[in-house]
Design goal:
The complex is a heterodimer of chains A (112) and B (901). By secondary structure, chain A is mainly α. Helices cover 85% and strands 0% of the residues of chain A. Chain A is built from four helices and no strands. In chain A, helix 3 packs antiparallel against helix 4. Chain A starts with a helix and ends with a helix. Chain B is of the alpha+beta class. Chain B contains 35 helices and 21 strands. Chain B has a seven-stranded mixed sheet. A six-stranded antiparallel sheet of chain B has the order 1-2-3-10-5-8. Chain B has a four-stranded antiparallel sheet with strand order 4-9-6-7. In chain B, helix 16 links the parallel strand 16 and strand 17. About 1% of the residues of chain B have low confidence. Classes of the chains: A mainly alpha (112), B alpha+beta (901). At the A-B interface, helix 1, helix 2, helix 3 and helix 4 of A face helix 24, helix 25, helix 26, helix 27 and helix 28 of B.
Chain lengths: 112, 901
């Protein structure tokens, strides 16, 4: 097997282990009832913090330095549209997401 | 009595050696602080009994207080008795022997409280006759007689016929018993200073019990001819309302008199805190919302603002709210009976058959009373609210669509009616074998549609097996053979079906004696809590037969509980049986004429259950650990367990009313298609976001010179978004294993946080799938979607839902890569607006998820993570900024966020 395939395989196994081992360990701890309150609270915060950070980093990727000023308005408008759609269709994530990306495409078309 | 200087000096020295302040000594021995200050100053007129109380608390022989050295005067006394220390020797093993001479005036008697455990007394009569020994059976001794007895019980020296003299030998053991420091008997106070001493002792008892001591009791000796309890009650009320009005003691206090004499006892009030979560669709069901609110209020007796919360809100006339409101009102010291009770109590059961079968429920429990007065049982409605909450959580469809269920041992049916008020969609088959209970049930459900009745035993019930989605049982599981009942329920339930049991469970026991102790502690707790709350409200006890019986309950059960806590099973059971005998001769058959009479009838029911438990008839209560063990062995898994009312112990599995919800285990080979397809539907937004990115990846990989097969392989096995782009650029540039692998791993290291966060979020508490199934597809987007939506998925569906979510996202990713690889040449010709729109899918997805998660609740971690990622994004690679921002956000939440309500 070529080195390239080895690299792909090891990266695949490594990524899987990064996802699996902590989950397996946390599950064992929870079953054994050894979860501390503080640890619990810290893990509670991971989800919302990850979503917020992913959001900022993904928006950051849309704003290259040279076009930042022209695009920032478009981004804000499209996000407002997402919020509006979500308010109209409470509980749905797919529809606001699609609507937001369509809005962004349309805005970018008119922005030229 | 004349005090000597050595006495004052000894008192002060011994007290300081024990590390006690004067106030501390006062609290322990029940002698006023001011009186102790005087004694230490060498003035005062204490009785011999008071000095004994001080010596006991100081854990010192009586003689050590009097000891003035070889030359000093070592006697004390008054006009009725004189005692003089003749000699005192300490043995090598630590034991002490003291020799006293004692003279008694004609007609005088000295009562002595119990000395520390193990103390022996020997009397040699010099001039008799004299009456000596255990207070309950003193002995007549003549001149020259010798008599030995245990000094650790209340005892007496008396000379009724003339002057008497004796030598007394006291033998103290080397190690005093643990109770020596906490005397339980004081002199009946005769003046203000005496009352001050009693008060400081009572305050001490309240603090001890408030902080975790299981019980304290104070008795009195040297009672006046007509001792009045009123003064003692006033003292207790004064202590309970101090230091200022508005504070509440977390204790139950009783003033009562029994055969031994008046007593003041303090027991702990327990707070199980079972209603912290409010997950039962409150917007859709105002009644359920109000029930949850009242249930929470009724278990938070110390919280401020209860009054307004109780008064607020609609109550209506339902069973549940009426019972809950009465409980809340009683906590606040107000007596209010449920409106339904009056009609039920007056109902004549002429149409009700009677049963004399030995094993029938009605053979040991008075069912027509049970029907009405169980409404007053503490936590009666609360257990149903908890059960409804569990059903709504684990079978959410029960809120929307009709659900056929089986209710086991329905009895007269009030809990079932409550459950139907909270979950009107239930269509129960009520199964009840007892003819009297069944007749009451028929009356109670008149006018109700949707309830089917079946008179017969649950174990014998002929019903299609493996088809029921829900079986409920309120207060009846202990009337069955528990193991058989669980096995029968398992047979009737469909795979994944739910069994919800609300019932009383005893504290853990291991033999018959400890079971009887557990029965006394358990049943008395329900009675005594209600009685103490009534007493706290200052409600007058009527002087009729009901009132007398009500007082008899307090007078017997408080000492019985204290005996039970001292492991004296015989004495505890004897008191309860005696009370049973008194109550069974009283005319409780007629309806009550007062609120206290109604409560007395509830007490009577509870006592019947206790005594039936002693005899193991009808009542076959087990303890929670054993119940859970049996349920697991029968093939159930635990979904939820809560102690709704605590009768003993601080542990969640100790005695009390418990609600236990179990699920019939399903082999994981049988996939939960419903949950899988729900997960697939939830993956739609992630899939739509993934398609363009995976598409770009396919394009980039081929453009970098990799073969389409390698590009597909990377997407299929590595499956890690951004790091795949890094990997192909490294592979294209010819990077080796040592360079490529660490770079990719470092970029993906944040994924290590996701698994534990999901587990903490409650996804895998009831796992049925092996963990690798749940972790392979745990990408950023899947994790973000799971965290924002998982709380709306029923816990037992969460594993399969998560797998569905991951499969949907994975298919989209692999398909997107395939499309990119195939249409690599066409991309440039696509309109710019389409490409821009596709590029905005992920920010839009994350923003929608952020709104879904709830910005207000999570504002601190969200703000910190967003701020840190924006700031660090300027200086470093975005994946590093991302990992650090997540850490910072989570840490800020752990340290500074307030606990959610």
């Amino acid at each position: 097997m070529s080195e390239m395939l080895w690299i792909i395989l090891i990266c695949a196994i490594g990524t899987f282990l990064l996802r699996w081992v902590p989950l397996w360990h946390a599950r064992r701890r929870k079953r054994g009832g050894t979860d501390g309150l503080k640890g619990q609270r810290w893990l509670e915060g991971v989800g919302p913090a990850a979503i917020a950070a992913l959001f900022v980093v993904s928006v950051w990727g849309l704003l290259p330095t040279d076009e930042r000023e022209s695009r920032i308005g478009m981004v804000l408008l499209a996000l407002a549209f997402v919020a509006l759609m979500r308010w109209l269709r409470r509980g749905s994530v797919a529809l606001p997401t699609l609507a937001g990306s369509v809005a962004y495409g349309v805005l970018s078309h008119f922005q030229g | 009595m004349e005090l000597t200087k050595p006495f004052s000096r000894n008192l002060s020295r011994l007290r300081e050696e024990r590390g006690l302040t004067i106030s501390g000594l006062s609290e322990r021995c029940g002698i006023a602080r001011s009186a102790l200050v005087s004694l230490e100053a060498g003035v005062g007129d204490p009785s011999i009994e008071s000095l004994w109380a001080i010596a006991n608390v100081l854990d010192a022989p009586f003689g050590s207080l009097l000891d003035a050295g070889p030359e000093g005067v070592r006697g004390l006394g008054d006009e009725t008795a004189h005692i003089r220390l003749m000699d005192r020797k300490e043995g090598r093993g630590g034991e002490t022997i003291e020799l006293y001479s004692m003279s008694l005036a004609p007609g005088s008697a000295k009562e002595s409280l119990a000395h520390p455990p193990g103390v022996k007394e020997k009397v040699v009569v010099i001039n008799g006759p004299i009456q000596v020994g255990d207070k309950r059976s003193p002995q007549w001794l003549r001149t020259g007689d010798v008599y030995a007895f245990d000094g650790d019980v209340p005892h007496v020296y008396a000379a009724p016929d003339g002057c008497a003299q004796a030598m007394i030998l006291l033998h103290y053991p080397a190690v005093p018993g643990p109770d020596a420091l906490h005397p339980t008997t004081l002199d009946w106070p005769v003046d203000a200073v005496g009352w001050e001493g009693v008060r400081s002792s009572v305050e001490r008892m309240c603090i001890d019990v408030a902080n975790g001591v299981q019980s304290r009791i104070l008795r009195f000796r040297a009672l006046p001819e007509t001792s009045s309890l009123t003064a003692l009650k006033e003292l207790k009320d004064e202590v309970m309302h101090s230091p200022a009005r508005g504070f509440r003691w977390p204790v139950l206090a009783f003033v009562e008199t029994d055969q031994v004499g008046p007593f003041l006892a303090v027991l702990p009030q327990r707070y199980p805190c079972a209603f912290q979560s409010t997950c039962m669709a409150p917007e859709d069901a105002p009644l359920a919302k109000r029930a949850m609110e009242l249930a929470r209020l009724s278990e938070s007796g110390l919280s401020a603002g209860r009054e307004t919360a109780i008064a607020d809100g609609e109550v209506g006339n339902g069973w549940t709210l009426e019972a809950l409101l009465c409980e809340c009102e009683l906590q606040a010291g107000r007596l209010r009976l449920p409106s339904q009770l009056q009609g039920m109590a007056e109902r004549t059961h002429s149409e009700v058959a009677t049963s004399h079968a030995d094993q029938a429920f009605s053979s040991r429990i008075q069912v027509d009373h049970y029907d009405a007065y169980e409404l007053l049982h503490p936590a009666y409605a609360r257990q149903v609210v908890a059960m409804a909450q569990d059903i709504a959580t684990f079978i959410p469809e029960a809120l929307q669509t009709t659900l056929r269920t089986i209710d086991v041992g329905t009895g007269p049916g009030v809990p079932l009616l409550m459950l139907r008020e909270l979950l009107p969609q239930l269509r129960p088959l009520a199964v009840e074998p007892d003819p009297v209970a069944f007749a009451c049930l028929e009356i109670n459900i008149r006018g109700q549609s949707g309830i089917q009745l079946h008179q017969g035993g649950f174990l014998e019930l002929e019903h299609p097996e493996g088809q029921s989605a829900l079986i409920t049982s309120v207060g009846s599981s202990h009337h069955f053979n528990t193991a058989f009942m669980l096995q029968k329920a398992y047979r009737l339930l469909q795979p994944g079906g739910v069994l919800s049991v609300a019932d009383e469970f005893l504290p853990p026991y291991h033999d018959l004696a400890s079971r009887n102790l557990a029965l006394v502690l358990h049943h008395s707790a329900y009675i005594l809590e209600a009685a103490a709350l009534i007493e706290r409200g200052g409600h007058p006890v009527p002087s009729d037969e009901d009132g007398r019986l009500y007082r008899a309950f307090r007078a017997h059960l408080v000492p019985a509980v204290i005996h039970a806590q001292e492991r004296d099973a015989l004495q505890a059971e004897r008191l309860c049986r005696k009370l049973f005998s008194i109550a069974s001769q009283t005319g409780l058959d007629k309806a009550s004429s007062s609120s206290i009479g109604a409560y007395t009838r509830f007490f009577w029911l509870e006592l019947q259950a206790m005594v039936a438990g002693f005899d193991y008839e009808v009542e076959r209560k087990t303890h929670v650990r054993r119940f859970l063990e049996l349920s697991e062995a029968s093939g159930f898994e635990l979904l939820s367990h809560r102690r709704i009312f605590a009768t003993s112990g601080a542990g969640d599995r100790d005695g009390g009313t418990h609600v236990i919800t179990l699920r019939k285990c399903v082999s994981w080979k049988r996939p939960d298609f419903h949950a899988l397809s729900a997960g697939l539907r939830s993956s739609l937004s992630v899939g739509v976001g993934y398609l363009p990115i995976a598409f770009s990846f396919g394009v980039a990989a081929v453009q970098a010179g990799l073969s389409p097969a390698v590009a597909m392989l990377v997407s299929m096995v590595v499956y890690a978004g951004a790091s795949q782009f890094l990997l192909i650029s490294l592979l294209a540039s010819g990077a080796g294993l040592v360079t490529a692998v660490p770079a990719v791993m470092l970029m993906n290291v944040r994924h290590a946080l996701y698994g534990p966060a999901l587990v903490a979020g409650g996804s895998h508490r009831h796992s049925r799938l092996p963990s690798p199934w749940l972790s392979f597809g745990l990408t950023d987007e899947v994790f973000a979607t799971a965290m924002s939506k998982i709380s709306s998925v029923p816990p037992h569906h969460r594993d399969h839902w998560l797998v569905g979510l991951q499969v949907g996202a994975y298919v989209a990713w692999v398909a997107g890569t395939a499309i990119g690889v195939m249409f690599v040449r066409d991309v440039e010709s696509w309109p710019a607006a389409v490409r821009e729109g596709l590029g905005f899918v992920l920010p839009a997805l994350f923003f929608a998820l952020l709104l879904e998660t709830g910005l207000r609740r999570w504002r601190l971690p969200v703000t910190v993570a967003a701020g840190v990622s924006a700031l660090l994004g300027v200086f470093m690679a975005s994946h590093h900024a991302l990992a650090l921002a997540v850490l910072a956000g989570a840490l800020s939440h752990a340290l500074f966020s307030r606990l959610p309500r």
